[in-house]
Amino acid sequence: MAKKQKYYVVWQGRKTGVFTDWKECEKQIKGMEGAQYKSFDTLQEAEKAIQRSYWEFVRKGGAKPEIKPAPASIGKPILNSLVVDAAWNTATGDMEYQGLYLQTKEKLFLMGPFADATNNIGEFLAIVHALSYLQRLNSEIPVYSDSKTAIGWVMKKHANTKLELTPRNKPVFELLQRAERWLAANKFKNPVLKWETTYWGENPADFGRK
């Protein structure tokens, strides 16, 4: 009897999206702390699931996990800060990103959607956009992102993406080049910090489409 096809949703991993092969899914989550994934019987179920919260599918009644008390080394988020996040649609490949002022939740910028991009690219562009935005205001407040990958790219001043250039995503690559040039040409004093979801809850700039 043939093995039934499964579809694997990765909400949080090296790459996010819907995967049709377990080995490919495993590459995204193996050894990664806080990985979020689940299998589904149909592609339709998986594509709907990726647009919603992971916790709706792994806990009875959709209950979210209890937020852990933050250790002293982490503490609480700095309210006088800018927090960013990106959203990537696994069905269309569209990406968008935004930034909020944490204390008031005021939306400071929203960009996209951009065709045929990735979530990591969106997170990277969001951080650089925030740094540029704050530089124009002569502000040195922190920038929060929940993407270790994007923060690492910013620190190295290079987006290490494997995405291939196509006519549809040419505008995204142009933005990446502008962002890398900005990082190379500018110094910033703003701390770029990790949003600690485990202790602080969901990133306030999240689009709510997981």
Describe it for me?
The chain has 210 residues and is an alpha/beta fold. It is 31% helix and 20% strand. It is built from seven helices and eight strands. The strands form two sheets. A five-stranded mixed β-sheet has the order 6-5-4-7-8, covered by helices on one side. A three-stranded antiparallel β-sheet has the order 2-1-3. A hairpin with a 4-residue loop joins β5 (95-101) and β6. The mean pLDDT is 88.
Find the structural class using helix and strand composition.
alpha/beta
Ranges where pLDDT stays below 50 over 5 or more residues in a row are none
- Which value, in Å, is the CA radius of gyration? 18 Å
* Biggest sheet statistics: 5 strands, mixed
User: Which band does the percent of strand residues land in?
Assistant: 15-25%
- Helical coverage, percent range: 25-40%
What's the count of strands?
A: 8
State the helix count: 7
Order of helices and strands: EEHEHHEEEHEHHEH
For the record, give the distance between the C-alpha atoms at the N and C termini, rounded to a whole number: 35 Å
The average pLDDT is: 88
Overall outline: globular
Spatial order of the strands forming the largest sheet: 6-5-4-7-8
Keywords: Cytoplasm, Endonuclease, Hydrolase, Magnesium, Metal-binding, Nuclease
Protein name: Ribonuclease H
Function: Endonuclease that specifically degrades the RNA of RNA-DNA hybrids.
Catalytic activity: Endonucleolytic cleavage to 5'-phosphomonoester
